[in-house]
Design a protein that fits this description.
Layout (H helix, E strand, L loop, with lengths): L3 E2 L1 E4 L1 H4 L10 H14 L3 E3 L7 H6 L9 E7 L11 H8 L4 E7 L2 H8 L3 H17 L3 E7 L1 H7 L1 H13 L4 E6 L6 H11 L8 E5 L6 H11 L3 E4 L13 H10 L1 H4 L2 E2 L4 H4 L2 H11 L17 E2 L2 H9 L17 E2 L7 H10 L9 H15 L8 H11 L3 E2 L3 E13 L5 E13 L2 E9 L2 H9 L14 E9 L8 E8 L5 E8 L2 H19 L8 E2 L5
Parallel strand pairs: 1-10, 2-3, 2-9, 3-4, 4-5, 5-6, 6-7, 7-8, 8-9, 11-12
Antiparallel strand pairs: 13-20, 14-15, 15-16, 17-18, 18-19
């Protein structure tokens, strides 16, 4: 049976830029466009040429090799001719292959926001689409607030879609601009529009304000739409846009869609979905969402011992797709709910060879449960668990020994009379029997400790030169001034490796230092550093 083609249109470089805290540079855009192309996306929308210097520079040349390079803009303004609309002219003059123009399709917005007549708006849609086609670019229309407009005035919303189609638009995209439409409404409305505009010319652009952007996109496909717009990792204003990282594997791996449709994403690209998603977060300096569908670190993680035993016998029982198909992996977590099967599975994944009857396994399980009762948590701290397991089993070299550390925090006036707070840390360690002392300054006690600890590790220094902290989280486990604090630190290196470590103490600085020491130790363990001493067997505190 032949399958219908679905087209994927990425708006990350425009809609994603509306995300609070996200600000793309031209270099960021070039790098992200490359990631999108690696997936096999059909259209890469680069932004709005003329809207700001960054987008204008980005559109100075074509930025894609295979995908169609799309520019976003508006239909011509009311009361202006095509030749007297600089915004439209900038789009037409750009290096884009496709021009996606946005138009009002809700009668209320036409009369109130645009201050024009319904008929003039229809003429602007048709003339603008024709102008794009005449420029040699592929024309496309985003019907803004289409679903709200349809509910308010069905006939006019349909007239807008028809005007674009009749004028030659390759795609007429129905936008759920405020994200308030539900899947059953999307399905019914798209099916109705498909009676006016053929489904192979219809697209869907969903926002996630009710958490239904992916579901709405799939509902539109079932109702006849053949283009889906979305963003990497669901970026976008307010609650975000339809997440292409969730949509792509659903379209590729779920029989209801995979048997009926095909996309430009091949199996090899799909197998790189997880690293592409995480690389995108890295570019944005954001921590990846641990529970993101398909690509999150917890997406194929199981904590309970009963489920873990079943997974070891038949993984398909508890996994809706094979993790490897999307570049992810199975994780059997070790926690106070864990059984022996969880522990053995995790030791095997970490490459720690141990006989299942080794008494050390029982000791390790008891130690994990004791520690978690005290506030430790290893589900999100693989590196600390790795070290705990190896120390319990006598398999961790002692690269260095911490003799002591001290932190000073001083609030004072600087040379120009400004009140500043300065942190200074001193760390004393021993490497190969040689005492070393380092002092570091930072914008807080943890930063100062990190600087001091990594300032001089003797012959091991070169192995940690590219180590840096990527994230730092603190959780108070109980109230009061003597509260127990859990610190989770995520580290990374130049090779793109990321690992997490944990520390627990009533003292936040002490908890942070525990996690810092584990981070450095794990980095040395995974490097080619030769140990200074034989493996240490004592449990780390």
């Amino acid at each position: 049976m032949s399958r219908e083609r679905l087209y994927l249109y990425d708006t990350t470089l425009r809609d994603g830029a509306q995300t609070p805290g996200v600000d793309f540079s031209v270099e960021d855009k070039i790098q992200i466009a490359g990631l999108i192309e690696r997936l096999g996306i059909d259209y890469v929308e680069g932004g709005w040429p003329g809207a700001n210097p960054t987008d204008t520079e980005f559109f100075a040349e074509k930025r894609t090799a295979r995908a169609r390079f799309a520019a976003f803009g508006m239909t011509k303004r009311a009361g202006r001719s095509l030749s007297n609309d600089p915004g439209l002219a900038t789009v037409l003059d750009s290096a884009a292959d496709t021009a996606c123009l946005v138009a009002k399709t809700w009668d209320f917005h036409v009369t109130v926001a645009l201050g024009t007549t319904l008929e003039e708006n229809l003429e602007a849609i048709a003339e603008s689409v024709e102008a794009v086609a005449a420029s040699g670019k592929e024309p496309m229309l985003d019907c803004e607030h289409f679903f709200d407009g349809y509910k308010a005035n069905r006939d006019y919303a349909l007239a807008c879609a028809r005007a674009a189609y009749d004028a030659g638009a390759r795609w007429v995209v129905l936008c759920d601009t405020n994200g308030g439409t539900l899947p059953e409404e999307v399905a019914a409305i798209v099916a109705d529009v498909a009676q006016v505009v053929p489904g192979d010319r219809l697209g869907i652009h969903a926002h996630d304000d009710t958490g239904n952007a992916v579901a709405n996109s799939l509902a539109a496909v079932r109702a006849g739409a053949r283009q889906i717009q979305g963003t990497l990792n669901g970026l976008g204003e307010r609650c975000g846009n339809a997440n292409l990282v969730s949509l792509i594997p659903t379209l590729k791996l779920k029989p209801a869609y995979a048997e009926a449709f095909e996309t430009g994403v091949d199996d090899d690209a799909l197998a790189h979905l997880t690293p592409i998603s995480r690389t995108f977060d890295e570019i944005l300096n954001r921590a990846p969402a641990r529970q993101a569908p398909y690509v999150g670190e917890a997406a194929f993680a199981t904590k309970a011992g009963l489920h873990a035993s079943a997974i070891l016998k038949d993984p398909t029982t508890y996994e809706h797709v094979a993790p490897e198909t999307v570049g992810n992996r199975r994780r059997v977590l070790v926690s106070d709910q864990a059984g022996r099967s969880n522990l053995l599975a995790e030791l095997d994944r970490l490459g720690i060879q141990v006989d299942r009857d080794d008494p050390g396994v029982g000791r390790l399980l008891d130690e994990v449960k004791r520690r978690e009762a005290d506030g430790w948590a290893y589900e999100a701290a693989d590196a600390s668990f790795d070290l705990l397991a190896r120390r319990t089993l006598g398999k961790v070299p002692e690269f260095f020994r911490v003799e002591s550390f001290r932190v000073l925090v001083e609030r004072r006036y600087n040379a120009v009379g400004e009140l500043v707070t300065v942190s200074e840390a001193t760390v004393k360690i021993t490497v190969d029997g040689e005492p070393l002392m380092s002092v570091g300054e930072g914008n807080g006690p943890v930063n100062a400790l990190d600087q001091a600890l990594r300032k001089d590790l003797g012959r091991f220094q070169r192995f940690i030169d590219d180590l840096e902290l990527a994230d730092y989280k603190v959780r108070i486990l109980n109230g009061g001034t003597g509260a127990t604090t859990r610190v989770l630190i995520e580290s990374r290196d130049a090779a793109g490796n990321r690992w997490s470590t944990v520390g627990v103490s009533p003292n936040i600085v002490d908890a942070s230092f525990q996690a810092l020491v584990d981070s450095v130790t794990w980095k040395l363990l995974k490097s080619d550093a030769a140990p200074a001493r034989a493996p240490a067997s004592a449990l780390a505190g």
